[in-house]
């Protein structure tokens, strides 16, 4: 007798007790990216919030241009610009409470800065000095993550642990469209949904995973639809609409905080600059495509709304630009200073308790440094 011939071992259809675990309808994202700017609903937006977003967008754009210039001057090894994506970055940095955690990717320096990280410290990784130039526990910002999507399971783990302890903490994890093709993305969503962890996933869909367009990565209707398969509601939002981004993220954070579980948000935006300063974007996209997206610039969209409400005065523009220039000047000045080097730091943060090999290597390096110092003193 085969396995299939055994009584009750095989059914051509699921047993009557089978039923969907989750109604998929509430999980489906919008048919079109949600937006506020340019609609009647924008009139209800808080003027103070609009002005705050504007000042941060202007500062973020200036940061991007200054950091890019620093790569050309040899002061940065690489810089992945977020020009054109500033609305996603700034909104992500502003919606969290002090007790919450941000888990950024390598392109999310502006989100970290909006969260309070020092602008120079945010570039330490990209300068090649340290893996991270700031204390993650001080700012509640995890290290800028270069490996794709590996920060997502970390965010879920932290959020789950906080929930088990009874701490009122939400984790916001950022990832690019390319990162959604990684196994870590799927593992993070599955665990977050099963555990109902207080975590928000923000996908910045900027059109390309380096040179690979989205159409060659997925056949899904949208990246936001991917949440349905895990039991996570998806949201599709215009990533260049700073007000819509702030609203959608705020709602998702509040839902997570009050026990509603995770949310997957896809922000449709565009990477105006190359992937990094080492990339030649002209090899895989046309200039006309880039110019079309420049017409949907997040700063210009917000400026139009501010003008229509009489909020964009000469003083507002001047103050925002002056603050951005002052930040850029401080950034140039501090980045032109050579960081002090301590060779023994190579062994300081590898293991909590040094291995015998590390102790041996540290002793060898210390002996070589002492010998060099003695030689200099004799001269």
From TrEMBL:
<dbReference type="GO" id="GO:0000287">
    <property type="term" value="F:magnesium ion binding"/>
</dbReference>
<keyword id="KW-0175">Coiled coil</keyword>
<keyword id="KW-0786">Thiamine pyrophosphate</keyword>
<dbReference type="InterPro" id="IPR017596">
    <property type="entry name" value="PdhA/BkdA"/>
</dbReference>
<feature type="domain" description="Dehydrogenase E1 component">
    <location>
        <begin position="66"/>
        <end position="325"/>
    </location>
</feature>
<dbReference type="InterPro" id="IPR001017">
    <property type="entry name" value="DH_E1"/>
</dbReference>
<feature type="coiled-coil region">
    <location>
        <begin position="317"/>
        <end position="379"/>
    </location>
</feature>
<dbReference type="GO" id="GO:0004739">
    <property type="term" value="F:pyruvate dehydrogenase (acetyl-transferring) activity"/>
</dbReference>
<keyword id="KW-0560">Oxidoreductase</keyword>
<dbReference type="GO" id="GO:0009083">
    <property type="term" value="P:branched-chain amino acid catabolic process"/>
</dbReference>
<dbReference type="Pfam" id="PF00676">
    <property type="entry name" value="E1_dh"/>
</dbReference>
<dbReference type="InterPro" id="IPR029061">
    <property type="entry name" value="THDP-binding"/>
</dbReference>
<protein>
    <submittedName>
        <fullName>Pyruvate dehydrogenase E1 component alpha subunit</fullName>
        <ecNumber>1.2.4.1</ecNumber>
    </submittedName>
</protein>
<dbReference type="InterPro" id="IPR050771">
    <property type="entry name" value="Alpha-ketoacid_DH_E1_comp"/>
</dbReference>
<keyword id="KW-0670">Pyruvate</keyword>
<feature type="region of interest" description="Disordered">
    <location>
        <begin position="1"/>
        <end position="25"/>
    </location>
</feature>
């Amino acid at each position: 007798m085969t396995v299939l011939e055994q009584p009750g071992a095989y059914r051509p259809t699921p047993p009557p007790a089978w039923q969907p675990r989750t109604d998929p309808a509430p999980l489906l994202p919008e048919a079109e990216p949600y937006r506020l700017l340019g609609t009647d609903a924008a009139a209800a937006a808080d003027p103070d919030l609009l002005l705050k977003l504007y000042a941060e967008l202007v500062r973020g754009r200036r940061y991007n241009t200054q950091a890019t210039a620093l790569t050309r001057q040899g002061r940065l090894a690489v810089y992945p610009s977020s020009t054109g994506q500033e609305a996603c970055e700034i909104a992500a940095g502003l919606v969290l409470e002090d007790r919450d955690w941000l888990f950024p990717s390598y392109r999310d320096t502006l989100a970290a800065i909006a969260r309070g990280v020092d602008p120079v410290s945010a570039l330490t990784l990209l300068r090649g000095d340290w893996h991270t130039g700031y204390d993650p526990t001080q700012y509640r910002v995890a290290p800028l993550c270069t490996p794709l999507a590996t920060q997502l399971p970390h965010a879920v783990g932290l959020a789950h642990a906080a929930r088990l302890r009874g701490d009122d903490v939400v984790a916001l994890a950022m990832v690019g469209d390319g990162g959604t093709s990684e196994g870590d993305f799927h593992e993070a969503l599955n665990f977050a949904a099963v555990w109902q962890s207080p975590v928000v996933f923000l996908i910045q869909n900027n059109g390309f995973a380096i040179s690979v367009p989205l159409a060659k990565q997925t056949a899904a209707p949208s990246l936001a639809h991917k949440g349905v398969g895990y039991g996570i509601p998806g949201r599709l939002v215009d990533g260049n609409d700073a007000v819509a981004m702030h609203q959608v993220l705020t709602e998702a954070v509040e839902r997570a905080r009050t026990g509603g579980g995770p949310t997957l948000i896809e922000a449709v935006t565009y990477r105006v600059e190359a992937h990094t300063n080492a990339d030649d974007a002209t090899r895989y996209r046309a200039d006309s495509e880039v110019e079309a997206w420049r017409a949907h610039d997040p700063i210009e969209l917000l400026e139009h709304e501010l003008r229509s409400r009489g909020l964009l005065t000469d003083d507002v523009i001047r103050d925002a630009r002056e603050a951005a220039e002052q930040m850029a000047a401080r950034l140039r000045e501090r980045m032109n200073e050579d960081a002090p080097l301590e060779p023994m730091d190579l062994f300081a943060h590898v293991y909590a308790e040094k291995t015998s090999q590390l102790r041996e290597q540290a002793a060898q390096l210390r002996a070589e440094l002492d010998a060099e110092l003695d030689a200099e003193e004799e001269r």
